[in-house]
């Protein structure tokens, strides 16, 4: 019998991917075929459910394929497949332990696919996957599910924040952490929360609450995970943000240029379009207001209670199972909370007492924590014994220079925060170490000295006070701050703004040829500002806007004597006021000028967005100026101011320059250290090389000369050979022509165009 | 001169490669030693002492395990071996392995891609003792249904054949077991394409996926015949004389030793699993997977769900005429009888 030949179509058509493709194109016509496959799936599921453990070869593989197939086209036949997602979930939840790995992954993937097609809602999906994530022993499955959960939460929050889903999920995580404090399952909650926090998907207090509960768990892994989140989560988030903003800086000009030069294809056109869209998106993003992201430490409810229970549960009790490193982490968190929120945990300071010896492992971390835990509302008599102990244990002629440095630095950091913890005899003693031969000790001693020149010069000996401090003392400017005294605060950098405004005004008056001190056209200036409510309008309104108008001249004559300092808060009623109060103000101004150190700018007028932008610019300028070398005095002042209150104090800062005092470093070590400090400067290069590099990076071409030099030798050989065969006359002509060309300046002649 | 050329040639000969020719034995090297020898008798140190070949029982199990082999000829040969082993055994002697052991490896072969394997499998199934099959119907049916809706038309056809065999051996169990009624009927409708009014029309544009096989119309005829058998088993009026036992007479049925008045205690006598309908250990069943044990139940369900579709389909088939029309008449006849009986 002749074997019947299968037609090519017949062979190819009978596979699921092909059917899937056809269904996508025309679901209505293929409904019968889909129904058949759905029954097929049903039967296979029945077979599988009867014996889920038996890894039946044909049966299960085709079940996998069927699941794949149905989940891909499920959206075309919602009525037939309405039970399908639930069936998958049942299989997964009941049998995930015994399922064949490939089938398991397929089911998870299919569920996520169904979620994308919106046949399952996120909450159901997460409630199915999350229990499996916690219970399954399979590592690959856990990784897969974790990734899928994360992805789903991200997509759910992409367009708008899905508050409902977030709340459900956060409650689940919260319950996971709180239900069994001894189990390590809370780690999954921590991992998830940390990831979402990093991507700025979850930024609210509820999230922080989950982590707070994790910190108070009894399982050490969970505790450490929670504590690490508080100590490093925000930094991680910032870094992630920086990375995302750094990437893909598209140079639109170059893209356009290249599109103009290269062959025009549809693909190229598309890529240009894409680049344009990306740039536009980025622009829009830049203009958007910065999202208010509070750090996790600020979002805590009841930081006092949290810090107290952390301290009591993990540090104070002898029963705590944490090892030293873990304890240090917890201690760092507690002390940061204390420093940041100015909490009072009086036991904390006596707890430090026993760890402050040079033999204690990682004592610098303890010192840093102690300094961190200090703030200006801590009673000085609690701190005084600690400072004394540090001085006795660490700082002596006999102790190693690193130890002395660490001690002095720690004392300085404590006194920065609470100067009252120091008494004058001890201080005068410690300040003497600035004469030490060791560099680290010397620098630490000087640091202490300069600190107290600012905060408490009368505690120093007269000759140590320095010029500024002595003068300040005499004039009564520098007084010791009382316990609990608070500085009245203002807007950072507002005086810079005021100064700038003053300069601008002077400049304008100079242009107009008026005396720089006299009353300005304030009204019009203000008008100007109101016009410049938007930052964008700033430039043009500055010079073309109001101030050329002549109407303000009258006003200059009216309020001649008025100083520029007084600006009225209410713009409309200004004119009326000016006449009446002009003379009174001029008298009182001189007196109040001295004591009124704060700028009145913020209290007397509304700052426009343009003003705020300028303020920001001035602030950054000032910060940059302070860092420029050669500007020593300002740099010193800013070294402490530069530290933000949110930043942690690290052990490295306590160790300070101790590394320098290790005199016996070998040459290699010294070189390595020098390299560490060196910024990554480019290698030295000639100007030409640099120029060439720049040209190359800009995508520009080379000169003709360069091209000639680079030309492949074999391309030039033929011509060179021909030269040998020239006659004398020919050679002469060539040489002549060359000479002529040189004179003219090239083939085209150097005619100046 | 002469001597030197000769020596040169000799020297070169060492480095020359021997040309090999296709089909020719490789020339023996010069230092070849012939190690063959002749002997009058050969003595083996060890040898098997069993006088007979492996026992038929062990061969049977071996071939049973070979059913999952990769090559389809191997599977087919094993099947045929099993078939002969089963059919050639003396009557009334039990098969070498119990049916519960034989069936599980057999069932996936219903979906086998090789048609020779499937036909051989049918032969083997027919050789199995019919009484044992009754207890395994619930196990077999899902595979049959999977085969009926398979993408490949050949598999569909052989699954229909298998169903026909199953109906002939244990018809009542097929229609009464869990999921046996509604699900199987669904599969029938799907095979015939009778689910919706539109697809049942003969003129409908049926962009059916996968060709219906070589015989084309033959498949439909076969399906209709088996459908008639199926409906006959399910809803045809049964002769009630033997099933309607006098409940209280102990002599009514065969004496079952530990049971007293089995029917009064609601214990079904004929089956191995009398309490199956309680579904004590299985998955909870939905409407489709439910057991419909009596004719009335089945007819009610049939009339509610399938009657219109089936009638519509039958009408279409009748109008088509030819063999299909004739086959459809068989189904209609069964339907008519059933309707008349229940009215």
From TrEMBL, chain A:
Chain intervals with Acidic residues compositional bias: 239-250, 517-543, 550-563
Gene Ontology CC annotations of this record: nucleolus
Keyword Acetylation: no
Record bears the keyword Protein transport: yes
Annotated Basic and acidic residues bias: 475-485, 564-594, 665-686, 694-706
Subcellular location: Nucleus, Nucleolus
GO biological process: protein transport; ribosomal large subunit biogenesis; ribosomal large subunit export from nucleus
Domain SDA1 N-terminal: 69-437
Keyword vocabulary terms for this entry: Nucleus, Protein transport, Ribosome biogenesis, Transport
PANTHER family, per the entry: HSDA/SDA1-RELATED, PROTEIN SDA1 HOMOLOG
Purpose of the protein: Required for 60S pre-ribosomal subunits export to the cytoplasm.
Protein name, per record: Protein SDA1
Organism of this sequence: Aspergillus campestris (strain IBT 28561)
TrEMBL record, chain B:
Record bears the keyword rRNA processing: yes
UniProt subcellular location: Nucleus
Polar residues: compositionally biased ranges: 80-91
Basic residues bias (residue ranges): 1-10
Keywords, in A-Z order: Nucleus, Ribosome biogenesis, rRNA processing
Swiss-Prot/TrEMBL GO biological process terms: rRNA processing
Gene Ontology CC: one annotated term: rixosome complex
Keyword flag Nuclease: no
Boundaries of every Pre-rRNA-processing protein Ipi1 N-terminal domain copy: 132-231
Pfam families: Ipi1_N (PF12333)
Alphabetical list of InterPro entries matching this protein: ARM-like, ARM-type_fold, Ipi1_N
Record-stated family: Belongs to the IPI1/TEX10 family.
Function: Component of the RIX1 complex required for processing of ITS2 sequences from 35S pre-rRNA.
Subunit structure: Component of the RIX1 complex, composed of IPI1, RIX1/IPI2 and IPI3 in a 1:2:2 stoichiometry. The complex interacts (via RIX1) with MDN1 (via its hexameric AAA ATPase ring) and the pre-60S ribosome particles.
Name this polypeptide is given: Pre-rRNA-processing protein
Organism: Aspergillus campestris (strain IBT 28561)
